[in-house]
Amino acid sequence: MPFLSDALARVQPSLTIAVTTKAAELKAQGRDIISLGAGEPDFNTPEHIRAEGRAAIEDGRVKYTAPDGIPELKDAIVRKFARDNGLTYARAQITVGSGGKQVLFNAFKATLNPGDEVIIPAPYWTSYPDMVALCGGTPVVVEAGIETAFKLTPEALEAAITPRTKWMLFNSPSNPTGAGYSWDELKALTDVLLRHPHVWVLTDDMYEHLVYDDFTFCTPAEVEPQLYERTLTVNGVSKAYAMTGWRIGYAGGPKMLIDAMRKVQSQSTSNPCAISQYAAVEALDGPQDFLKTNAALFEARRDLVVSMLNQINGVSCPVPEGAFYVYPSIKELMGKTSPGGTQIETDEDFAAALLEEEGVAVVFGAAFGLSPAFRISYATSEEALTEACTRIQRFCAGLK
């Protein structure tokens, strides 16, 4: 009898973390490596938020809390949803987890039975299908390629829905593409969902405040209030507030679902870090002006990377509406040979050769469910991005 769970065979380790780990190992060996794999801001957490974390330690606010969040943080989240999204929740409709990832996992664990399907547009964040599979569900991947600007169409959504569909998982702006859905684009999708009352909506709004140009963020329950009672709106402080390591994610949704998710969390991790929770209150209730400042810095980096990548023959890089990623297509580079002699048959071959020959770490597109492409995180300095893109240009120019 095998010792390990059958469920474990349905999942794989995070490929984005694997790329970052590999880059760190090569750096430790003395290699000149520029890592563009990690999806976290290079800014420090703002001082007023750090100060509240220090105060929580000094004040002794370091004990166990309620399993899914302190009342003060839940109330701050209620205010945030009202202020930013026009969504009204009571405290009992809010849950807090150790990062958005735990909140998503709790939702799946609380709702999925064997055979239940979850619609996941591709490219997707690498963890989505594995979390669904680990919780006993079936991921239904629907391609949303470069020809639709990496956005799911109403027709594709309609075709993917079956009697077994339980959730549609929605991420805008997207990791890995940065694609953001306009109000009209999102309304077209919610119109489809209104025709299928058995399908619930699970949003991942983690990049809400990282949007560029004249793009305006919106979320499904805001666009279509009739979906409010079957939508779990997930967000967190990781990206916009530069608090990745603090590990605070949260969600608002129907009380019945929130109660079920609390039960899951109470028997797994219990409460998120108390210190981080108090800091997150300050993040959500404190000054918000730095959000636009940081977004402007990211927008300049986006423009730099898109411009340099689109100068490469055989590379096509759309301009993303948000987040801090680009997802260039390298379809025209398949079948070529790298300067170092590697045959490029897949985007994984491309990424491996780029790392080995030029010291640039990117994540290959197959990790996100749509190939051939690769993901760059531009959450690093313009100097590093310029050097990395110069190396990518040189590598591609040497392909034969």
Fraction in helix:
25-40%
Largest sheet: 7 strands, mixed
The count of DSSP E runs of length 2 or more, i.e. the number of strands, is 12
Class from helix and strand fractions: alpha/beta
What is the H-and-E element order?
A: HEHHEHEHEHEHEHEEHHHEHEEEH
| Strand order in the largest sheet | 2-8-7-6-5-3-4
Distance between the termini: 51 Å
Question: Approximately what portion of the residues adopt beta-strand conformation?
Answer: 5-15%
Rg, nearest Å: 21 Å
Low-pLDDT segments = none
User: What is the number of domains?
Assistant: 2
CATH fold assignment of the largest domain: Aspartate Aminotransferase, domain 2
The name of the CATH superfamily of the largest domain reads Type I PLP-dependent aspartate aminotransferase-like (Major domain)
User: Can you identify the CATH class of the largest domain?
Assistant: Alpha Beta
CATH architecture of the largest domain: 3-Layer(aba) Sandwich
